[in-house]
Amino acid sequence: MRVIPLLGAIALALAGPASAQGKTPPLRVSADGRTLEAGGKPFFWLGDTGWLLLGKLDRDATEHYLKTRAAQGYNVVQVMVLHTAQMANPVAGPALVDGDLTQPRVTPGNDPAKPGEYDYWDHLDWVVDRAAAHGIYLALVPVWGNLQDFRLLTTETAPVIGRFVAERYKDKPNIIWLNGGDRYPEMALRTWDVLGTTIKAVDRNHLMTFHPAGRASSSWFFHNAAWLDFNMYQSGHMSYAQDTMLHARGEDNWVYSADDLSRSPPKPTIDGEPSYENMPHGLDMVQEPRWGAADARRYAWWSVLAGAMGHTYGENSVMQFFTAGGVANAYWPTLSWRDSIDADGARQMHHLKDLVLSRPFVDRVPDQSLIIGNGTRYDRVAATRGRSYAIAYSYTGKPFRVAMGKISGKHVRATWFDPRTGTSTPVGTFANSGEQLFTPPGRSAPGNDWALVLDDATTGTSQ
């Protein structure tokens, strides 16, 4: 297939089949600057890290992945557009001409429906449309940090590739931009700023953030950037014992939510990369224990109850689409992605989204004053409330005391919500004053996690 120059490439971007506009209405930041809205309705971001989707899967496998994640309640998938200069799809071929960011490999006269006759960008067009059909937004990383490391992404090349992707996808309804690529931005502040500014100048329709390296947040360097609509942090993959970094916070990812939300002007925030299920503690340390479903739940509940607008989940095999017997990209996966896509944690994430959206979303705020004599680390009880409800999450299931009177009503109705199953067990009705001791079901231990839900007894809401 003949390669055409970049200037003609933008004009030849395929419109593709009609996207499911009704399933992926435009995303906007809410008036209070704390959450997102989709078509004017509250939007809880439940994301998955499908980082190497474009580099590993053909169309049949892509359809299976998107269909499965949509059925599990996910509405965002985070994807690398250009992981390396040699980024290629197994059927559609390479994304760039000779690894040059100023020369996207766009080919004319092909059939975007026939294998071998569509290029990488035709394939991404198709993926975008299929995601929309499943009600999924694609959070696209235009250029991963590898290309900046080798000085392929610079202040000269960033405007070219930035303009290309922005022009091509600015009219798609289900795009979110993740500037950055798992890097500390201070290593190339100007380059990342140029990329973000370029994309935003062309595409004002879609939201944008910055995906930083581990134990960092976009707010540290770009909170006031005109192109940054919401913050994203990567709480990272290290345990308490392994975290010896300057800003060490161990597994306490809720600290990033609290820090981001304390800044002005207010902007929503989210943990875009917590510890992945089935990945060794510390990433490459194969001898270490692996994060499990309970850990994945804990990261989600801690960050959201601290005020995050949603949460992104990750699984080791799925994020790199590893197939047993094949060569892994990194981090010692043991299961094929088709098996891991149904990992326990993956199937349990939507219960948090369902619970939060079952109560008034806009007036919810984090409020640790609900918990009396709180613990630390795994024993810390996370708490949030609206005007007529409160939620308190215990990872270890230890008894804890609640300061009553923080929500409306003379009496409150209490239930235990199971993060593993999404089922609720009534506890009883209590006077909404003084202090009240609550004892979660089962034996106290890490992973015996429960959420206490308190509702104004005069409301009809129950879960």
Question: Superfamily at the CATH H level of the largest domain?
Answer: Glycosidases
- Rg, Cα atoms, Å: 22 Å
| Span between termini | 57 Å
In the CATH scheme, the class of the largest domain would be: Alpha Beta
* Multimeric organization: single chain
Number of domains: 2
Number of helices: 13
Would you tell me which CATH topology of the largest domain applies? Answer: TIM Barrel
Mean pLDDT: 92
Strand arrangement in the largest pleated sheet: 12-11-10-5-4-16
Helix content: 25-40%
- Strand coverage percent: 15-25%
Low-confidence residue ranges: 1-19
CATH architecture of the largest domain: Alpha-Beta Barrel
Biggest pleated-sheet summary: 6 strands, parallel
Shape: globular
**Topology, number of strands:** 25
Structural class: alpha/beta
Summarize this entry quickly.
The chain has 463 residues and is an alpha/beta fold. It is 25% helix and 23% strand.
How does this structure look, described?
By secondary structure, this protein is of the alpha/beta class. It folds into two domains: 6-357, TIM Barrel (Alpha-Beta Barrel), CATH 3.20.20.80; 365-456, Golgi alpha-mannosidase II (Immunoglobulin-like, Sandwich). Helix content is 25%, strand content 23%. The protein contains 13 helices and 25 strands. It has helices spanning 6-11, 53-56, 59-71, 120-133, 145-149, 158-169, 189-202, 219-222, 254-261, 293-305, 316-320, 337-340, 344-357, and strands at 27-29, 36-38, 41-43, 45-49, 76-80, 88-89, 93-94, 96-97, 100-104, 137-141, 175-183, 208-212, 216-217, 231-234, 269-271, 310-313, 365-366, 371-372, 381-385, 389-394, 400-403, 411-417, 424-431, 435-438, 450-456. The strands form seven sheets. It has a six-stranded parallel beta sheet with strand order 12-11-10-5-4-16. A hairpin with a 2-residue loop joins strand 8 and strand 9. Helix 10 (293-305) runs parallel beside helix 13 (344-357). Residues 365-455 form the Putative collagen-binding domain. Residues 257-276 are annotated as: Disordered. This is DUF4038 domain-containing protein. Residues 1-20 form the signal peptide.
